[in-house]
Amino acid sequence: MTRFLLRRLAHGAFLLLGVSVLAFLFSTLAPGNYFDDMRLNPQISAERLSVLRAQYQVDRPMAVRYTRWASAVLHGDLGFSFAYNTPVAPLLWTRARNTLLLTGTATILVWMLALPLGVWSAERLGRPADVALSWMTAALLMVPDLVLALGLLVLAARCGWLPTGGMVSMGFDGFSAAHKLRDLALHMVLPVTVLVASALPVLLRHVRSAVAETLEAPFLRAAEAHGISRRRLLYRYVLPAAAHPLIALFGFSLGTLLSGSLLVEVVMSWPGLGPFLLEAILARDLYVVIGGVLLSTLFLVAGNFAADLLLYWADPRIRAEAAGR
Amino acid sequence: MITGEKADLRQILTVRDLRVAYGQRGGGVWHALNGVSFGVGAGEIVAVLGESGSGKSTLAASLLRLLPGNGRITSGEILLDGADIVRMDAVQLRRMRGSGVSIVFQEPSLALHPTIRIGEQIGEVLRAHGTLGKRERVARVREILGKVFSGDIERIFSSYPHELSGGQQQRTLIAQAIACEPSLVVADEPTASLDPTTQREILALFQSLRDQLGIAFIFITHNPALLAGFADRVLVLYAGKVAEAGPTGAVLSSPQHPYTQALLKCLPRVDAGQAVRPKTLLPVIGGVAPSLAVLSQGCVFEPRCEERMEICQIREPAAAMLGNRHEVSCLKFPA
Amino acid sequence: MEPVIRVEDLVKRHAGRGLGRRAPGFTAVDSASFSIFPGGTLALVGESGSGKSSLALCLGCLEPVTAGRIWFEGRDLATLREKELHAVRPRLQLVFQDPANSLNPRWTVGEIVAEPLLVRGRTAKRERDARAAQALERVGLAAEYLERRPRELSGGQRQRVAIARALILDPKLLILDEVLSALDCSIQAQIANLLVELQRAYGLAYLFITHDLRMAAHLADEIAVMSGGKIVEQGTAEKILRDARRRETLSLLEAVPPAPDATEGARER
């Protein structure tokens, strides 16, 4: 078992390494850099610029810069942001936390909705209720996230029940704890709704097809033939068997926790990682960009690894294969 | 209708005029069973011999009311110790399945849940029908495994299905079937995917379970060669009807129905250690299996029968009792 | 007379798998030797795991051979490279057990039967169709079956299609791997008859692989019994049945119950 997991970990580490190199490569190869833009700013003198350049070692060869950066990362130092003039790591972390709040909540909600609906739908496969649900999810799938987000914003602006963007209201810090919670929750409603609405149709279909396929399986008919109750069949036989394709999806869900909500964050002014990275890219803030990309990749790798672990634990056939039997 | 071998053998299953049809897309109907009647005595091994399309799997599924969505029992009775399975409600059915009548399916590797251990899968059957606590269940599962496997019980108890051979998987299905000591076990082609040696072992297992536990078996197969020395009685099924039924020896050595006769002639002969006339052409049954989309008038085997008479196209044969508890449904033998 | 195929000391070993904790390799076929003559049938009988299917795959050049020689048309198939094998394959065809898996469900029967022609580069569609119809006729299927799809056919019909496809390039040797096992009794008899007729008409040689000793004795001139990768007993069908010595053969023999109407059969003859 350890061999299997070590192999997967090694893959992940290799992937991270590769991504960091590529990110570094593309960022530095892209024409222009932060300091070139600064040159256009008449308030900054040329000498100041050259001091800054020397400080940030912008003129050193790429390989050197990369190795210095890589060794720093291994010590937990993600570098320095040119624009904000502070270390990258705390900046990223604050923003990432905001994003996770949104996507974490959305992911939990999506799975909580998709699982029972998927099972319900699969049990009634082809019948009117299932067909109706399929049409509804298809309709939801057709609506672009952008349209949905803007539409909801307009609705919120008209009704005035929900805040139209942002994460917290003015004077947040002065609120009581309960008020803070309520304020945050209200701000989360719209973005979470959009996220759930965009992820639900796909997940629902996957759950439905995984469960439907299991319901057709011969072992289920055999178990029914032994007089096992429907309830027991569902929980002990159907769900565990249907879970396997879903575990991979779950890992993917985990993996995209940081990267999946860019659009929503930008449209709804949620101070998350997405808009921050976008800004950094436009400003050529090298270390922020690479740090952000690396963080996203880390989540992706961790998510897949978690899925591998879960699948390994859940399916004895995979364990047997891994052992070379 | 055939009753048990001995006059005083208690009859545990009586099937009377069972008719089953499947609805087809486009509105058509497939008449899978058209009036099947037979009985099974306690501890009897009854073989149902039929080829594809004869309705044998439908019969197996009907006995446990496990027909697929588009299948329905259109008429008839299935009496298990007096209670009519056809009229049971959901609760009674669930109770009956596994403890009154059990079934052993054809493909053992598919009939077992891939990620639940063997011991637990057998335990689930006990859990569904009894009030044994967990520890008692485990002990009972070991006991059952002991009856079905000759050794290595601990390893099998904690194995997963994919770790077992085909024969072992089939024994597991049998263990599940006998777990609650039903009075009848239906085995639907249980040896079809197994090697000859393993086949023989499974047949021997059925006999030993019958001797030890008094369980009756309905053994469904398409291979007549398996039956000699194994089954007490044979039912020959053709196009949803019983063509012939009787003690195994009688039916196999002197078949009366033209279909049974033709079917048995299809087997290559191996007598006294020498193939009789090797590489010659075997006699085959002319024509093709009938379509059951339309109920035929007259005898359903008539188009392929070598001994057909004019009346066979008009009148449907009824079961005629010959001596020795042997019955035939053929117009050669007036009922 | 020269044999159509002569196998000398054929060995097939499967290497172990997995880095580190290796699954041990095992020998599927251990030094098998036999010959098949034109118009003759050799039955290879054994239980599953005896190596008979591995042997079939090696002879059909679908698996590389570890050691030994396969003499076919004066050349050793084990040493030929893919391009040279391509030239030989038409005369050495395989038919498998489960037609549901060996016939492409999306193609029509006509396309399936004509596929070998397509692979050989004979492109005229009209000629392909004509030859496909001819092949179907040889196996007893009417031309109307050309347009049907495998799912519309019964097991026996599908097996006939598989045989037609194998015959379309006029092979000298057919390797039949458990082709009857999945069929009903009466259909087995029909297909067995077809095989006998085809052999008489075209002088085909058969390697008939099965676990059914009864059918093997009926169809074969010679029987080779395989167990654990080795051929443990070999001889004419008559001899094997009469003088079975090895435990494995006896075990297979015991699994052949006496013909149900043996007494009647004796009387009839």
Please explain how this structure is put together:
The complex is a heterotrimer of chains A (325), B (335) and C (269). With 325 residues, chain A is an all-alpha fold. Helices cover 77% and strands 0% of the residues of chain A. Chain A has 14 helices and no strands. The model of chain A has no long low-confidence stretch (mean pLDDT 85). In chain B, helix 4 (118-129) packs across helix 5 (134-148), helix 4 (118-129) packs parallel to helix 7 (166-178) and helix 5 (134-148) crosses helix 7. Chain B is an alpha/beta fold and 335 residues long. Chain B has a domain at 11-100 and 217-328: P-loop containing nucleotide triphosphate hydrolases (Rossmann fold, 3-Layer(aba) Sandwich), CATH 3.40.50.300. In chain B, the strands form three sheets. In chain B, strands 6-7-8-3-9-10-14-13 form an eight-stranded mixed β-sheet, sandwiched between helices. In chain B, strands 2-1-4-5 form a four-stranded antiparallel β-sheet, with helices on one face. Chain B has a two-stranded antiparallel sheet with strand order 11-12. In chain C, 39% of the residues lie in helices and 23% in strands. In chain C, strand 9 (222-227) and strand 10 (230-236) form a beta hairpin. At the B-C interface, helix 8, helix 10, strand 11 and strand 12 of B face helix 7, helix 8, helix 9, helix 10 and helix 11 of C.
